[in-house]
Amino acid sequence: xxxxxxxxxxxxxxxxxxxxxxxxxxxxxxxxxxxxxxxxxxxxxxxxxxxxxxxxxxxxxxxxxxxxxxxxxxxxxxxxxxxxxxxxxxxxxxxxxxxxxxxxxxxxxxxxxxxxxxxxxxxxxxxxxxxxxxxxxxxxxxxxxxxxxxxxxxxxxxxxxxxxxxxxxxxxxxxxxxxxxxxxxxxxxxxxxxxxxxxxxxxxxxxxxxxxxxxxxxxxxxxxxxxxxxxxxxxxxxxxxxxxxxxxxxxxxxxxxxxxxxxxxxxxxxxxxxxxxxxxxxxxxxxxxxxxxxxxxxxxxxxxxxxxxxxxxxxxxxxxxxxxxxxxxxxxxx
Length: 334
Known about the structure:
The chain is of the alpha/beta class. It has ten helices and 13 strands.
């Protein structure tokens, strides 16, 4: 469906991070926008964020909840960008006062997956022998692996997807497998590298918002809000709002060991969540199901489940996770 736009603003500037996946995601959004509003011109600007700048530092050591978004939001506020395309799981739940979530596009597969090194005889994470090294930098994934697969060792691995796969496949490299998001592999044509999909049966839930793209705009920008309306997916949006409000109430960032799973059955949304200590020794988990038809109802679902988790002890687990102070050079725009 075509979108009506003002004649006096013909260029829409779309910003994204400097990685092949981020660029592919921004390109997909631009393609959808071109179909919805072909009269407009679209320009893409690629930016290096603080987490892109420092590829050796473990993610949990960054003293910020906006390590993937801050530089892009500054350009948005400076009116050098009109839309920023994020992996929704990387977006802080509390945006700057000047910014707003303008839309959430249809979700790709939200699950985590196992990618074995090339030539490996192992097919699932349960097959791996004691002492096998799993490559992941996500606190959430490490916590789940420590909890449900304590015989395995987790070692940080940073870089874009292609860089991590190259490290995995190196001769005599330390990694037996990686745990990655299915959505990222699928979006850049690497679905064939997926060895095994992880599910709740493995104890492995996914990050709030994983698999969805968040479209950030300046608060009050009605033109962009109207433009993005055609891209927003209702079922994805309601599920992700519930997930994000749970994360917000628990005061967790994108690096917190908070996992979720949402499923629709008719108009009923089921939200399951777990909070696991980084060493895997402590876990609280629960779920709530309810008929959901509005953003307010989705927010309430997330808030209510967060309250249950807090009563079960999630607050104590999260309170003991304190990232070290971080001082980084400013990111460069490229």
